[in-house]
Amino acid sequence: MHILQKIYCRTFQTAFKLALPVLPYRKPKILDSIQELPDALKDKGVSKILLVTDKMLRNNGLTKDIETVLPENGVEVVVYDGTCPNPTAENVEEAMGLFIWEECEAIVAFGGGSSIDCAKACGARLANPNKTLKQMRGILKVRRRLPLLVAIPTTAGTGSEVTLAAVITDEATHYKYPINDFPLIPRMAVLEPKVTYSLPKHLTATTGMDALTHAVEAYIGNSTTRETRRDALTATSLIFSNIETACREPENEEARRNMLQAAFLAGNAFSQSYVGYIHAVAHTLGGAYHIPHGLANSVILPNVLEEYGEAAWKKLKDLAVAAGIAEKDTDPEEAANAFIAEIRAMNKRMGIPTKLRGIQERHIPKLARRASAEANPLYPVPVLMNAKELQKFYYQVMTEENNV
């Protein structure tokens, strides 16, 4: 990256870091069970909600509790189950139209990051009916208070239940873009382990590694606070201690609860301290090829950490100590390498590949430019890279049949 670009990026990031203490970050109120939700909604004067979810979750009966418990306790439920894996602007418009038509008063998102992001974007459109989603992409462009938003994560990974971000895909261009503003933080989050029991092993693994990526990128960046460092370290410890148990024993309540807690803490950490190039590259792959976000993060994570080199060693050592794979007196380079090696080993044990199918070499320059546009100057990464330098990560993870 050119020296003037670096100066601009670091100046921009420093300004945001200095503003952190006065920005209106908040954590959602945590509910431990869906059974607590009716009273929490009625306390807010809500008698009718829009449930935003997807067809797979609903067809598998996972929304049954909500669709039963809420009406039994005087809260009417209207369901939008059209959310696709990478939610589109069309999904958001459909959900918004249903909310208005049915005269709903609040939004409850049930699912992984896709459903929660769709619900957030729906709330943003309801708050700003004269703005398109594209006009709200980027930072601090929502501004207005959303209808009451409750998030019920069915995966322990995205952290979307605590973040100020929503990621939407333009279905026409396949461009995936973030919307970031404080009103998008849900007012309540229901962290109930049993809704994650039916999550398949590969999704438990990749969404868990998504949470780890949040914790790692938040911690190694240059815009941390005491709170985000503490949350990132705790999340890292919980993930290393519980993710493989959750994969092996899907109904292990303790492991599932700990993973939900880890995802929540990691989400809070990156919401304030931001992510980095791992996410920027992963977002472009999701938009272009519909590669699941957690899978993309899992595969890219060790490669980018390795590329940061010495600039990340000290902080990666802290994470390695928290993960229980290094001691406090371990040399930083040794600890960092052990941490990266253990991520690769853990991925392998959980069946996560090292390559991603479908990446086309001819697309890489455009994808890298999009990743650079997302990350620079916002993400306070340990080492700044331009679009040309980011191309390396696409080549590292593409399969041989496309590398022609």
How would you describe this structure to a colleague?
The protein has 404 residues and is of the alpha/beta class. 54% of the residues lie in helices and 10% in strands. It is built from 16 helices and nine strands. The protein has helices at 3-19, 37-43, 55-59, 64-72, 89-101, 113-127, 133-136, 201-220, 226-248, 253-273, 277-289, 293-308, 310-323, 332-349, 364-375, 387-397; strands at 29-31, 48-52, 76-80, 106-111, 138-139, 148-153, 165-170, 175-180, 188-190. The strands form two sheets. A six-stranded parallel sheet has the order 1-9-6-4-2-3, with helices on both faces. A hairpin with a 4-residue loop joins strand 7 and strand 8 (175-180). Helix 8 packs parallel to helix 10. The longest helix has 23 residues, at 226-248. The protein is globular, with a radius of gyration of 20 Å. The two termini are 27 Å apart. The mean pLDDT is 94.
- Give the class from helix and strand content and strand pairing: alpha/beta
Largest sheet: 6 strands, parallel
Q: What's the shape?
A: globular
Percent helix, as a range, is 40-55%
How much of the sequence lies in strands comes to 5-15%
Low-confidence stretches: none
Report the end-to-end length measured between terminal Cα atoms: 27 Å
Question: What is the arithmetic mean of pLDDT?
Answer: 94
- Tally of DSSP β-strands: 9
Over all CA atoms, what is the radius of gyration? 20 Å
Q: Largest beta sheet: what is the strand line-up? A: 1-9-6-4-2-3
Order of helices and strands: HEHEHHEHEHHEEEEEHHHHHHHHH
Query: How many alpha or pi helices?
Result: 16
